Amino acid sequence: METINLTIDNITEPYRLAVENHYESFILHRFNGDHKFANSLIGLFITIPVYWIVGTAYTFIDIYQWPKFILKYKIQMDKSQVNGKDLRRLVKQVLFNQILGISLGASFQWLQVNHILIPQSSTRIPTISRFITEWISFILIREVLFYYTHRLCHHGYLYRHIHKRHHEWQTPIALAAIYCHPIEHAIVNTFPVLIGPYLMQSHLLVSNLWLLYTVLLTLNDHCGYHFPWSLSPVFHDFHHLKFNVNYGILGILDWLHGTDKIFRKSKYFQNHRIYFGLTPPSDYSKMN
Q1: How far is the C-alpha of 85 from the C-alpha of 70, rounded, in Å?
Q2: Please, are residues 145 and 192 in contact by the beta-carbon 8 Å criterion?
Q3: What are the tens digits of pLDDT across the range 103-154?
Q4: pTM, rounded to two decimals
Q5: Is the preceding peptide bond at 192 cis, omega within 30 degrees of 0?
Q6: Rounded to whole angstroms, what are the CA distances from 94 to 68, 180, 197, 205, 258?
Q7: CB 185 within 8 A of CB 100
Q8: Which of 14, 11, 13, 41 is nearest to 26 (CA)?
Q9: 35-64 and 84-113 helices cross at what angle (nearest 10)?
Q10: Which SS3 state, helix, strand or coil, does residue 74 take?
Q11: Which of helix, strand or coil describes residue 225?
Q12: Gap between the Cα atoms of 165 and 122, Å rounded
C-alpha cells in the first residue's frame, strides 16, 4: 500500500505544487501575504453565501411549487407547505447561528495559526494520499461525534428544551439545516466538523474545503428532494419524519446500535441510493 501511495504521490506532485503556488500567490496578492488573517476568514465567509444561495433556491421551489417537474422528487409531498411566519423565525435563528459558528470557527483557526493549545496546521498542501487520509478521518470523526451528541439531544430535558426546535420542521427544507438552538449548533453541528482538521493538523485550505463540503452536504440532507445523480437525503429526511431513528450521517453507527431498524423495514429504505435516471426510484406521493 505504501508503494502505491508513493507512486500516486509522485505522479500528482506537479499538480500539488501548482495548487500550492496558486494558493500562496492568492494569499500574497489579496491579503498581503497575511496567512493568519486570510485563513481565518476565507472558508468561514465563503460558506455563508453558499448556504443562502443554495438554500433560497430550494425554498423558492417549496413556496411557489414551481417548476412543477421538480415536485416529483419531493420526498414528503403532502407536507411541503412553507409559511411566512415560520420562515421569518427560521431566518433570524439561522443568522444568529451562523454568527456563532463563524465565531467558533475563527477562534479555532486563530488558535491554530498562532500555535496556541491546538497543534500547528501544516504549511504545505498535502499529497494526494495524505489528503485522502485526512478526508476519511474528517468523515469518521464527524460521524462518531455527531451520532452520539445528536442521539443525546433526543433524551428528556435536552429534547424538550434544545433539540425540539430543530424538529419543528418535520418536513425539512434546506434553509432549516442549521435552524436549531444555539447550544445544539455549537455542540452537535459545529464541533464535530471543526475537530477533525485540527486533530489532523490539516492545511487550512483543506480545512476550508471541508467546511464548504459539510455545508453543501447538510443542505442536501435537509432539502427534501431526492434528485438524480445526487447523494440521497432520504436517510435524514426519515429522521425528521419519525424522530427517534437515523441519528447519524453515514448510517454506520445507526446499524451498529440498531437505531435504523424502522427505516430498514420501510419503503423509504428501498429508495435510499443514488440513481441515474430522470425518474425517481418510487412515487413518493404514494408513500406519504
Answers
A1: 25
A2: yes
A3: 887 777 677 667 666 666 677 899 999 999 999 999 999 999 999 999 999 9
A4: 0.92
A5: no
A6: 28, 8, 24, 25, 32
A7: yes
A8: 41
A9: 160
A10: strand
A11: strand
A12: 38
